[in-house]
Design a protein that fits this description.
CATH architecture of the largest domain: Alpha-Beta Barrel
Number of helices: 14
CATH topology of the largest domain: TIM Barrel
Largest sheet: 6 strands, parallel
Shape: globular
Number of domains: 2
CATH class of the largest domain: Alpha Beta
Distance between the termini: 30 Å
Strand content: 5-15%
């Protein structure tokens, strides 16, 4: 059976096969800074957690790092000022969110081997008291559910058949429902879902297999990596009060500064869409000395056209193969 490919992938392959991508590269078809955003590195195809968090296998990540270091200026966040003053440059920044252990075991050695800098935005509460994040626990419960049919509930008005080969659509539905929940609704969301799915809550042992440690982060920082903030508990900041947001930003930065003994002035928003932060978030960032804050909104930074508290990043996911990755770097104004 023929595998269908998307229009964007077809164009990416055509660019590569015709050599037009090399022509565009040589013509310097864009200027500015392209920030790549990863979460996890490795093979998550059999994981009980949220498999969409895996951005690339170790092999694919190495190919991507090799490509960007060969063709572009890969910079660290400390170089942003200089890069933004360069109207003709093409710069790439490699970033990670959350603080997963594979960032240290898989991504860090690859970055070092290519002398590439990376930035790692850390959810400090996950390191201090290892816990299972809501997205991973939702995925775990759906995959462990013994039911063949999910009965109608407050998240789905109709019953849904739970196909044992692929429950991904149900996981995505519930993740979206959680993201749309108010703070009050989110508080009881996981316990209520555990009852509906008849799974109970995920075992705590999983949490101790997920996260980096402070000594790992110190080693990474000493090797030239940047460590930034990503809140304490990974809430959607815009759903919180001004006081709660101030705590999530301020306490996160305080913990990182205390553990690493250095100035921390970069931050990325959990979830990172346009509606995930607001004016209260910006005030908290200003108050606690944040210089640059990063979204999960695609695109690249154009010289003299940027908001320092809403810098765009482009998500790298496992469906981005070599032609698509090359096209993204060649034409970020269309692919990013």
């Amino acid at each position: 059976m023929l595998q269908r490919i998307s229009k964007r992938e077809l164009i990416a392959r055509t660019l590569q096969q015709t050599g037009f991508d090399r022509m565009l590269y040589q013509a310097r078809s864009w200027r500015g800074i392209l920030i790549l955003n990863y979460h996890r590195i490795g093979n998550g195809s059999r994981s009980s957690c949220d498999r969409n968090l895996w951005s690339a296998t170790a092999e694919s990540f190495e190919e991507q790092v090799r490509y960007v270091t060969k063709h572009y200026d890969v910079i660290g966040l400390e170089d942003l000022d200089l890069a933004l003053r360069n109207p003709r440059g093409r710069f790439v920044v490699i970033t990670f969110d959350d603080g997963y252990l594979d960032n240290y075991t898989e991504a860090f050695p690859i970055l070092k081997s290519y002398h590439a800098k990376g930035a790692f935005f850390i959810t400090t509460g996950f390191l201090d008291v290892p816990s299972i994040p809501w997205w991973d626990e939702i995925a775990w419960m759906v995959r462990r559910c013994p039911l063949e049919v999910l009965p109608a509930n407050r998240w789905s008005q109709e019953s849904i058949r739970l196909d044992y080969d692929d429950r991904e659509s149900v996981i995505q539905m519930l993740l979206l429902a959680y993201k749309k929940s108010s703070v009050e609704q989110a508080a009881g969301f996981l316990s209520e879902l555990a009852d509906v799915l008849q799974t109970g809550r995920a075992p705590q042992r999983i949490a101790h297999e997920l996260w980096m440690t402070w000594p790992m982060l110190r080693e990474m920082q000493q090797a030239g990596m940047t460590i930034g903030g990503h809140t304490v508990t990974h809430p959607i900041l815009a759903t919180l009060t001004a006081e709660q947001q101030d705590y999530e930003v301020g306490e996160c930065l305080r913990r990182i500064r205390k553990e690493l003994g250095t100035l921390i002035d970069t931050f990325s928003y959990p979830v990172g869409g346009q509606s995930s932060f607001n004016i209260h978030t910006r005030k908290a960032l200003e108050k606690h000395g944040v210089r640059w804050a990063f979204t999960f909104i695609g695109g690249h930074i154009r010289p003299r056209q940027y908001d320092r508290f809403a810098l765009p990043r482009t998500a790298i996911e496992t469906d981005i193969n070599a032609p698509l990755f090359n096209a993204l770097l060649t034409l970020p104004q269309w692919y990013a």
